[in-house]
Amino acid sequence: MPLDRPPPATRHRATGRVTLSDVARAAGVSASTASRALRGERAVAPDLIAQVQAAAQRLAYVPDPAARALASRRSDHVAVLIPLLSNTLFVDLLEAAQKTLRAQGYQTLMGVTHYDRQEEEQLLRELLLHRPAGLLITGRDHSQASLELMAGSRVPCVHLMDLAEPGGAMPTYSVGFDQAEAGAELTRHLLRKGYRRVAFAAAQLDARVMQRMSGWRSAMQAAGVYEATLEWLNPAASSLALGGQMFEQIVQQRPAVDAIFFCNDDLAQGALLTALRRGIQVPEQVAIVGFNDLTGSDQTLPALTTVRTPRARIGEAAAQMLLVLIKGQTPAQAQVDLGFELVERASA
Amino acid sequence: MPLDRPPPATRHRATGRVTLSDVARAAGVSASTASRALRGERAVAPDLIAQVQAAAQRLAYVPDPAARALASRRSDHVAVLIPLLSNTLFVDLLEAAQKTLRAQGYQTLMGVTHYDRQEEEQLLRELLLHRPAGLLITGRDHSQASLELMAGSRVPCVHLMDLAEPGGAMPTYSVGFDQAEAGAELTRHLLRKGYRRVAFAAAQLDARVMQRMSGWRSAMQAAGVYEATLEWLNPAASSLALGGQMFEQIVQQRPAVDAIFFCNDDLAQGALLTALRRGIQVPEQVAIVGFNDLTGSDQTLPALTTVRTPRARIGEAAAQMLLVLIKGQTPAQAQVDLGFELVERASA
DNA sequence: CTGAAAGCGCTTACAG
DNA sequence: CTGAAAGCGCTTACAG
Hints:
The structure is a homodimer.
Chain A: H1 20-27, H2 31-38, H3 46-59, H4 65-72, E1 77-82, H5 88-103, E2 107-112, H6 117-129, E3 134-138, H7 144-153, E4 157-161, E5 173-176, H8 179-192, E6 198-203, H9 207-222, E7 231-234, H10 240-253, E8 259-262, H11 265-278, E9 287-289, E10 306-308, H12 311-326, E11 335-337, E12 341-343
Parallel strand pairs in A: 1-2, 1-3, 3-4, 4-5, 5-11, 6-7, 6-8, 8-9
Antiparallel strand pairs in A: 10-12
Helix pairs in contact in A: 1-2, 1-3, 2-3, 5-12, 6-7, 8-9, 10-11
Chain A binds a DNA duplex through helix 2 and helix 4.
């Protein structure tokens, strides 16, 4: 038996990449110790930690995400599901979450559901295959199968925009604000200003829009001025053009309406443009308010009264909460209410 | 030596996941063959392919992305770099690319550069660690280090929005349209309508904006009406409000200007709003045109004349080209010019 | 607190 | 055309 046989020629692919064992060798420790030292897992001698970190630094070592994911069964991906990319609201959410996550070394895997529960389910299936470290998902309105997928995956999950229904079973994490209360508050503002026939005009009709409507409804009922004919619901996608159309319909078919609460700013902006075109005075003939305080709502003629929603802060806070959950810790509170702000401008 | 020693108890983590060897066993072939059959690598007997596929189907097998990435040194990620998320233009690009890529089983890893070459470089470094199968990147204006990172990574790459400079060295792939020509065409439209003192007003001042300006300039020079004082450049971010400010400045400081070419629709929309507020007639007193045909430009008062840019088609075509490159094939053409369309409305 | 070894679930030279 | 085996680059029981 040859004592000195040469090292076997490498049969396989070499990457050229600096690996963990390179670092371990340079630091004079085993790969296990190097791994533990680098991840800040306790139970490693302080001086070894320093040595390993120095070696890693010197060799410009960066761990391979795929190897780490395979070995630990947990990737550095975070899946983020939003309904649409064509609504600034959700883009703001995505951007803030992505920024926060990236600062901690996580990559965002985004999914666009188009408000379709089937598509959301499919997306969840695909994304969960990547064993994401965490999941951020918009709203609380999901198919039963989606709910099971999320629960079964054991992936930490935070819901965006909505708060949990009070009295829900499991302690689900969410950060958002009270949509119904925001809708009620905006309606009360109108009522305080003396408007009585306040129409509620909505498109898209997702869960959050319906919550705003229930807020509007309860405020109207409390004031004794609620009428079912004041509700204008259109399931089509929200847009400037649709807002213009709905506005024309309302003023034409119900000239007595003295204020309109559009469930989203783009509808309200479209209405304002149409009013201008038709020579209808806002707010003298009819007041208009929107929701979300989107880009341009401070520039319209007249400037739009609306509710400012803290979506960037929601995205950031939700990401932060998710980061805590990923570490296996428990967030200070399971529900974070970030509130909203009534922005009174000239249109109402 | 015991002849019948029991199989060693599994010392490690079991995932519960259906693996390739499960499929191979069920199909009565080796893991290697199963792997090749599933990936459609030729050199596998047709009947075996069928058997393996049937087994995979039956067991609901889905390959593990991390294991595949580790072994093949190529993930199913595609990195997509865009400058901003707050400009619909880029969101449209991202959405179209993502949709096309996802249909072929690729996950999009997005990066937002904020028009910052340093940030782009950093992002590239991070994303390249994930060994993406491909890279989609906006524009052709990158730092030297970024270019080296891209080249060194050997990751197939397609540039978005711009076309390559004619006479560039390497055959780089890109899909977009001729920004300078679009700028020139829009200017010629104004000149044909009889406007002579056509100002060019721009913000952001990225490479594509400057190309549009050079188009404007050459058209103005060709008509013999170019003047340096007609250029209004502001490095700040583009917005409705800024458009309004620039408009006021121009009409105040250079009342002889009879038309303004804003480099982006949001500026033009802001200008239109300000004109309305100031009672300045568009296009009678001053004509206004924009660029990109963004949301709302058909709703302004008056409706905005602009250039429609095919960003969704660019995103899709670029993704398609990248898919071809990933397969190791050569695209029919390295440069795809998707053109643009002059949209004449009421503002000019 | 540390290390040797097994394993995560694939792909891919290599040999036949 | 097919299979056995090595390897991708980590993490993690296990033993000390």
